[in-house]
Amino acid sequence: MSERLAQIAGHLNYPQGLLSGQVAIITGAAQGIGAETARLFANEGAKVIISDIDASQAQNVASLIISNGGQALAVPGDLLDDSYIKTLVQKAAEFGNNKIHIIVNNAGFTWDAVIHKMTDKQWDTIISLHSTVPFKLIREAAPYFRVKDGEPRNIINISSTSGVHGNAGQANYALAKAGVVGLTKTIAKEWGPSFGVRANTIAFGHIETRLTANKEAGAFVEVNGEKVALGIPEKQKKAAGPLAYFDIPLRRPGTATEAASAVLAIASPLSSYITGQTIMVTGGRNM
């Protein structure tokens, strides 16, 4: 923890960490924002379940956390496979002594095209991964959230400024990310009154990840045998020149650690009276 956060946590009597004793599933946790979220959660005492389609990377993140004294379990698999979602929840509950406290729906990627050129495969894949998968995971984990044991329960769905404001070339992603905002509010209204479950959305702006790196770097994901290139073309970035971050008051992109810190802040007891909200983490863009 930072010195200031440590002072706050100490004042509120969380000597073992802000998330001590809690069990957290984090999807897309093998790299980027997800991996940083897992690391920060573990540093605050949580037992983290690393969910990602990249088995090797997922295990690397879990091993690093364990080597630093944290508790982590890699459960790799494809979230578009319903059987994997069942396995993920089952193994998380076993790891957590039949308890799950936090879900962070972070997994995803972009597969862009302008509306008149977007294929059904692009549309269906992105809608499924960013909207349907979070719903199915939450539904599967419902028995561990609809409980009255006095312990905190927390769901954080990751969205984007594209889901709040729309974005040219991202009709599929914008709709999916807007959808999780409605899902979040519904969870807050259904599970808050009787079970005290908090649910919030975090909408990120420009964060430095493989989705915003140069496309020429070669990062990709594979969808049913088809490689989907990730990133922004270098030519497009250069065209923006010195104005690239002009609409961001802080005049720079955010880091994965800054993004993950926002997730930790909302998951922690420091945000215990915040629910049903969409928190914008954008450096001030679109305010």
Describe it:
It catalyses: a (3R)-hydroxyacyl-[ACP] + NADP(+) = a 3-oxoacyl-[ACP] + NADPH + H(+). It is an enzyme of class 1 (oxidoreductase). The protein has 287 residues and is of the alpha/beta class. It has a single domain (3-210, 253-281), classed as NAD(P)-binding Rossmann-like Domain (Rossmann fold), CATH 3.40.50.720. Helix content is 43%, strand content 15%. It has ten helices and nine strands. The chain has helices at 3-11, 32-43, 55-67, 82-95, 120-140, 142-145, 161-165, 171-195, 234-240, 256-267, and strands at 23-27, 47-51, 71-74, 102-105, 154-160, 198-204, 220-223, 226-229, 278-281. A seven-stranded parallel sheet has the order 3-2-1-4-5-6-9, sandwiched between helices. Strands 7-8 form a two-stranded antiparallel sheet. Helix 2 (32-43) links the parallel strand 1 and strand 2. Helix 2 packs across helix 10. The model has no long low-confidence stretch (mean pLDDT 91).
Assigned CATH architecture: 3-Layer(aba) Sandwich
Please report the distance between the alpha carbons of the first and last residues.
Answer: 29 Å
- What is the CATH topology assignment? Rossmann fold
Overall tally of domains: 1
Portion in helices: 40-55%
The CATH homology group name: NAD(P)-binding Rossmann-like Domain
Shape: globular
Please trace the helix and strand order, writing H or E for each element.
Answer: HEHEHEHEHHEHHEEEHHE
Radius of gyration: 18 Å
How are the strands ordered across the major sheet? 3-2-1-4-5-6-9
Number of strands: 9
Secondary structure class reads alpha/beta
Q: Which residue ranges are poorly predicted, with pLDDT under 50 across at least 5 consecutive positions?
A: none
What is the highest CATH level, the class?
Alpha Beta
Keywords: NADP, Oxidoreductase
EC number: 1.1.1.100
Organism: Podospora fimiseda
Family: Belongs to the short-chain dehydrogenases/reductases (SDR) family.
